[in-house]
Amino acid sequence: MEGLILLLVIFGGGSGVISLIIRNLYYICQPNEVLIFAGAQQRLGQKTIGYRLVKGGSSIRKPLVEKALRMDLTNMIIELKVTNAYSKGGIPLQVDGVANIKVAGEEPAIHNAIERLLGKSRKEIEKIAKETLEGNLRGVLASLTPEQVNEDKIAFAKSLLDEAEEDLEKLGLVLDTLQIQNISDNVRYLDSIGRKQQAQLQRDARIAEAKAQAASAIQTAENEKITSVRRIERDTGIAEAEAERRIQDALTKRGAVVAEVEAEIASELVRIQSEIPVQQERIKQVTEQLKADVIAPAEANCKRALAEAKGDAAQIVEDGKAQAEGTKQLAESWRAAGANARDIFLLQKLEMLLKTLSATVPDVDIQNVTMIDSQTGGTAKQAIAIIEQLKQTTGLDIASAVNNLASSSQRLPEGK
Question: Could you give the CA distance from residue 197 to residue 150 in angstroms, rounded to a whole number?
Fold first, then answer.
C-alpha cells in the first residue's frame, strides 16, 4: 500500500512538472502574428541573426536561452492629412486620404520590421507609418501640377504607392491600399479648375446630348423610314394580293359570263333555227299575199296603163301628124305671103290676144276712140303698157304692124 502511494505521489509530481513545462515553454503562433524566439543565433544566407521565426504553427522555447516575442500582423488604418503641400507651380494643396498598412509577414521585409519595430506599440508603428507616408505624399505633390493631382487621383495614388513602397519596405511595412479622399487649396485654384472643368463637362455633356439627340432623331427617322417601307411593302403586298384575287374573280366571272352568254346564244340560236321553218312559211305566205294584193293589181294596172299609153300615143301621133301637116301648110302659106308673112301671122294671133285682154275690161259703149298720152292713167294706160311689154319681150310692134296693114290695103287697089 505504501508503495502504491509513493508511486502515485511520484506520478502526480511528474505530471505537474510536465504541465508547468508546457505552459511556460510551448508557444502556439496565431495566423495573424509572428513568433520571434530571440537569443539563439543562426545563419541567414551570409548574415547571422540572433533569433528564429515561427509563423502559423507552434514551437517550444528553449529555456534559459530564448525569449519568446510576438509581432502583430493585422491591418492598421492610417488617416493622412497634408496641408500647405506645395505642388508643381507653387500652389499649396491640402490632401486627405486613408492608407491600409500592416507589418510585413514575408521575408526579407519581416527582418526589417523585427529590427526596427519589434517591441513598439501599434500607435508608435502607426505614427511612424503616417509620418513616412505624409513625407512621401509631399514629395509626390511637388512633382505634379494641381491639374494632374485633381484630374487623375488614381494615377496620383499609384505614384504615391511607388514613392512610398521603398521607404516602407525599409521599415518592414507593407502598404496594402491608399485612397485619396479630398484635394483642396486655400487660394481656390482647384475651384477655378473645377468650374472650368465643369463648364467643359457641361459643354461636352451638351454636345454629347445634342449628338445623342441627333443620333436618336436620325435613328428615329431611319426607323420610321424602315417602318414606312415595310408598311408600303405590306400595303403593296395586300394590294397585289387583292388585285390577284380580283383578277381571279374576274377570270372566274368571265368564264361564267362567257358560259352564260354562250348558253344564251346557243339557246337563241336553237330558237332562231326552230323559227326558220316558220319564218320561211311566213315568207311564202307573205309572198303569195303580195302577189295577190300588190303584184297582180300592179301588173293589171301596168297593162291598163300601157294600153292607155298606147292609145294616147296614137292620138298624140295623129295630132302630131295633123299639126305637122298644118305647120307645113302654114309654112307654105308663109312662103307664099312673102315679107308680110310674119306680120300677118302676128295679126292672126293678135286677135286672140286682144280677145283675152278685152275680156278683162268691163263692157262699155264706145262712141269715140281718143288717143291719150301714155302718162295718163286708166285702161288705155294699161293697154299701152301691154303693147309696150309685147314689143320689149317678143319684138312685136303692134302699131307698126297696124300701119303696115293699112298702107298695104291702100296700095292693093292701085296695084290691081
Answer: 11
How far the first Cα of the chain sits from its last, in Å, is 253
Provide the CB-side half-sphere exposure for 139 (13 A, CA).
13
Instruction: Look at residues 189, 130, 179 and name the one whose alpha carbon lies nearest to residue 156.
Output: 179
Nearest to 27 by CA among 76, 61, 63: 61
Confidence of residue 362 (pLDDT cuts 50, 70, 90): low
On whether both 57 and 107 belong to a single domain, the answer is: no
For 130-176, the pLDDT digits (tens) are 888 888 888 888 877 777 777 777 777 787 777 788 888 888 888 88
Grid look-up 508546457 returns: 22
Distance CA 386, CA 118 (A): 185
Under DSSP, is residue 118 helix (H, G, I), strand (E, B) or coil?
Answer: coil
- Does a cis peptide bond (omega within 30 degrees of 0) precede residue 108? yes
Res 4 pLDDT > 50: no
Neighbours of 66 (CB within 10 A): 20
Instruction: Show the DSSP H helices in 172-188 as ranges.
Output: none
Identify the three-state secondary structure at position 82: strand
Q: Is 160 exposed, middle or buried (0-12, 13-18, 19+ CB in 10 A)?
A: buried
Question: Strand 76-86's sheet: what is its strand order?
Answer: 76-86, 92-103, 173-184
Do 181 and 77 share a domain, yes or no?
yes
Instruction: Assess whether 77 and 182 both reside in one domain.
Output: yes
What residue numbers bound the domain in which 105 lies?
A: 73-187
80: β partners: 97
Q: Which residues contact 41 (CB under 8 A, 6 or more apart)?
A: 48, 49, 50
Positive or negative torsion for Cα 79, 83, 85, 87: positive
pTM across the whole model:
0.41
pLDDT of res. 256: 80
How far is it, in rounded angstroms, from Cα 351 to Cα 355? 6
Has residue 20 been placed in a domain? yes
- CA distances 104 to 72, 101, 120, 400, Å, are 10, 9, 15, 185
Task: Average the pLDDT over 257-271 and give the result.
Answer: 81
Q: Give me the DSSP letters along 272-292.
A: HHHHHHHHHHHHHHHHHHHII
